Amino acid sequence: MSTSPTRSVFTREQEQFRGAVRGFLKDQVVPEYSAWLADGKPSRRFWRAAADVGILGIGVPEQFGGLPGSDYRHSVVVTEEIQALGLAIGGLRVQTDICLPYLLHHGSPEQRATWLPRMVSGDVVVALGLSEPGAGSDLKAMSTRARRSGDHYVVNGAKTFISNGAAADLVILAVKTDPDAGRRGISLLLVDTGTPGFSRGRKLDKLGLRAQDLAEISFTDMEVSVDNLLGGENEGFTYLTSNLAQERLSIAVNSQAAATAALSWAVEDHQRGNAGQEVKFTLAQCAAEVAAGQSLIDQALARHVEGRLSGGDAAIAKLYCTELQGRVVDRCLALAPPSTVLRGNSRFGNAYLDGRVSRIYGGSSEIMKVIIGQSLGL
Fold this sequence. Notes:
By secondary structure, this protein is α+β, with helices and mostly antiparallel strands. It has three domains: 12-120, Acyl-CoA dehydrogenase/oxidase, N-terminal domain (Butyryl-Coa Dehydrogenase, subunit A, domain 1); 126-234, Butyryl-CoA Dehydrogenase, subunit A, domain 2 (Beta Barrel); 243-375, Up-down Bundle (Butyryl-CoA Dehydrogenase, subunit A, domain 3), CATH 1.20.140. 49% of the residues lie in helices and 15% in strands. The protein has helices at residues 12-29, 33-39, 44-53, 72-84, 90-106, 109-120, 236-242, 244-271, 277-305, 311-335, 347-355, 365-375, and strands at residues 126-129, 145-149, 152-163, 170-176, 186-192, 198-203, 214-225, 229-230. Strands 1-4-5-8 form a four-stranded mixed beta sheet, covered by helices on one side. Strand 2 (145-149) and strand 3 form a beta hairpin. Helix 10 (311-335) packs antiparallel against helix 11. The protein is globular.
């Protein structure tokens, strides 16, 4: 099985874009991917090469160098093609699907003119600074403070589990500007990582996603101009929640594509020999579930493009597709030969490790169930 080129959710132009993305990945990413695994992050060359294909300009107005006529479906094409090759480049989705919307929707004209062209060209890599050592993803418990002093903020604190943290040139940083106001006291600052007082800590060694940059960052009396405030002061929580539906859909799309790829590899492997009835039944069950997941994703994607994707819709897609990814990859791994357990020797082994976090980040499966329950009036 493979992603169908005739799914009605995509335009002809987007399918043509798929071919360009596939060629780029095969020619320029696959040959150096093993080096990324060793280094713990993509090469800097990758970002500029991705820009040349238009991947970093998806959804960005042409005046800033964006890909003409593009929308979120172009990002879905990129994700599906990455997963079809068994790659994990989550930092790319952090930049295009998660960070870009903050500047597009809440940035001032000056901020957009300063940063968007450099992001689109691959000269600037972006990270989102949320999670903290003592607070995790509980935003109201964050301890990073930004104290107003004249025409700048003085920032002190630390963040952890930051995707793109080791390579980032820009961090969209969540801070407390009113420590006594809980979630109503959060603001977002655009922080150039060359700012005095900004420091990078450890690159974190993960169970999976070994080619994805994950790091600690900290701030000691870091002075950030008030001109770098993104949107309004103390409006950060509203901005962060406004993009959650797309963030969760992005994770769901990635998980669905990973499940589709794992099934495709397993079918290919077992077509070479005589598949027994147990193998046939296992893969048939996987095929039925993957088809259901694809229908769910395409429905959610169509709603998102029309501006109708609700938080409950996104939660359903994320819950089903991340759990689907776990089931399908686990079943396909069980059917694979013993050499699968050797590091670097199996797409299935990498997919198994890379996929586990999908049920955790962006809101765990349990949180998705809470959101879905609320949408049902429960």
